[in-house]
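Residues determine shape. Next comes a sample protein:
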Amino acid sequence: MAAYEHEVDVLAGSAEGLLKTDAPLEAMRRWMWQYIDYVATKRGMAEVLRHVASGQDDFFNPTREKLLEAMRTLLDAGMTAGAFRTDVNAKQLFQVTTAVCLASDDSEWKEHSRKIMAVFLDGLVLRP
């Protein structure tokens, strides 16, 4: 469990660093790709990931909160910069991202997940 928590800490902690070097949309994109890579290492734990995403398992709630906070940080930065829509919250983003990652079992799921998330992120961009 300690290794799992460490991996989540590293992933969640990368959001702030990305925002120091990238504009909010690019930081969000890069973080999402890291999240997809993280899920790739946990594909055998699909049911666990579903529990983490649902918030129905107290055991995984601290992990879920760390990931939600990272997403919230990225969303807030984009909203503050006027780059992102304001009608999407971190919980919704987390649910969509996790669902996309777990939606397919084929050998190209990771590439497909990135394409779908790119479309979602494009929809997140605030357009006048």
